[in-house]
TrEMBL record:
Organism placement in taxonomy: Bacteria, Pseudomonadati, Pseudomonadota, Alphaproteobacteria, Hyphomicrobiales
Record protein name field: ABC transporter ATP-binding protein
Subcellular localization: Cell inner membrane
Swiss-Prot/TrEMBL keywords: ATP-binding, Nucleotide-binding, Transport
Record's keyword annotation contains Ligase: no
Lineage: superkingdom: Bacteria
Record carries keyword ATP-binding: yes
GO cellular component, one term: ATP-binding cassette (ABC) transporter complex, substrate-binding subunit-containing
Length: 238
């Protein structure tokens, strides 16, 4: 479990401000959902946390260490994208182990970790298949597994369920929550879906035009929206 501090992050693309002094203190083991409409800066914020994107000012601090200058691979976090980005020519087993092979992880550790996630995510029977032979939901599990073998202490998710149908989305929401209980990892989960946010989060950060308008537990967001935007977006009565 790790704490994550996002401090005064600013970023713009071609003169347009995309992140406007974003501040968030995330406690170890929290499940945080970043909620907001398309284009409000959610993916950019996640990419800045992961180190996949730079920012003009501000800091990302993980467990009291400023990681702002570190490469993504040095930050000790796992990221799951909307497009699963699995390697099509590799088996599921190889998809899971490849990152560790590249990083020079000892073989017995690789085998142990692959067995662990395969069991955790119930994909043991799929290990010798290739991504093309999997359903959308199965590919999604493999993508989550691939992230978890890298790090299970901080996991970043960027709209990971948006390519699934409604039934599978609902099931996977429940499973992700169970996974969070089991691993006790710190999870930062981006979505534009209010139901996902309200059902999964310990706290929700509602974003609008590059700013966090409210950062609070789902119930307070719903009962005491901090602005008209928040009230309108989560559909609360105010
Ligand atoms: P969200 O994930 O909430 O939909 P994004 O973080 O992807 O939003 O984008 C926020 C804003 O930044 C949008 O206006 C988008 O067009 C812009 N943007 C994102 N990435 C780039 C880029 N690489 N170059 C220029 N503009 C970008
Ligand atoms: Mg996005």
């Amino acid at each position: 479990m790790s704490s994550v501090s996002i401090r005064k992050i600013r970023k713009s693309f071609a003169g347009l401000t995309v992140l406007d002094s974003v501040d968030m203190e995330i406690a170890p083991g929290e499940f945080i959902v970043i909620l907001g409409p398309s284009g409000c800066g959610k993916s950019t914020l996640l990419n800045v946390i992961a180190g996949l994107d730079d920012c003009e000012s501000g800091q990302i601090v993980i467990d009291a260490v400023d990681v702002s200058g570190l490469e993504p691979s040095q930050r000790g976090l796992a990221m799951v994208f909307q497009s699963y980005a699995l390697f099509p020519a590799m088996t599921v087993r190889r998809n899971l182990s490849f990152g560790m092979e590249v990083a020079g992880t000892p073989k017995p550790t690789i085998v142990q970790k692959v067995d662990w996630v395969a069991k955790l995510l119930q994909i043991e029977a799929l290990l010798d298949r290739k991504p093309g032979q999997l359903s959308g939901g199965q590919r999604q599990r493999v993508a989550i597994g691939r992230a978890l073998v890298r790090s299970s202490s901080i996991c970043l998710f960027d709209e990971p369920l948006s390519n699934l149908d409604a039934k599978l989305r609902a099931e996977t929401r429940v499973e992700l929550k169970q996974l969070h209980e089991t691993l006790k990892s710190t999870m930062i989960y981006v979505t534009h879906d209010q139901i996902e946010a309200m059902t999964m989060a310990d706290r929700v950060a509602v974003m609008h035009k590059g700013r966090v308008e409210q950062f609070a537990p789902p119930q307070s967001i719903y009962e005491k929206p901090a602005s008209l935007f928040v009230a309108g977006f989560v559909g609360s009565p105010a």
